[in-house]
Amino acid sequence: MALTAGALIWISASGTPLRLHLVIAITLAIFLSLMLAAALMGLVFFSNESGHDQSAADEAARHDPDGWQDED
Predict the structure, then answer these.
(1) Which of 8, 39, 60, 68 has the fewest CB atoms within 10 Å, i.e. the most exposed one?
(2) DSSP for the chain?
(3) Whole-angstrom Cα distance, residue 31 to residue 54?
(4) Cβ distance 55 to 61 under 8 Å?
(5) pTM of model > 0.70
């Protein structure tokens, strides 16, 4: 809510008239962006808990047993 209000205040301060369609578009854009971020973070946690990350790491280690190493 505060993010949307801040964006609308910033846009109105730049001299752009705040029409209804603009307010709706900004509100939806911010809301959908936050929902997408939340969904992606949920998928990260789900992937970690389900073991997909570990199986991918095991497969990568099988192909490159030395892994990432710093060269001095």
Answers:
(1) 68
(2) -HHHHHHHHHHHHTT----HHHHHHHHHHHHHHHHHHHHHHHHHHHHHHHTHHHHHHHHHHHH-TT-S----
(3) 33
(4) no
(5) no
Can you tell me the distance from the alpha carbon of 61 to that of 54, in angstroms, rounded to the nearest whole number? Answer: 10
Crossing angle for the helix pair 20-50 and 2-13, to the nearest 10 degrees: 140
Look at residue 65 in the predicted model and tell me its pLDDT. Answer: 64
Are the beta carbons of 19 and 30 closer than 8 angstroms?
A: no
Q: Please tell me the distance from the alpha carbon of residue 64 to that of residue 12, in angstroms, as a whole number.
A: 55
Given this model, what pLDDT does residue 71 score? 57
- Written as six digits, the tokens of 64 are 């490159």
Does residue 54 register a pLDDT over 80? no
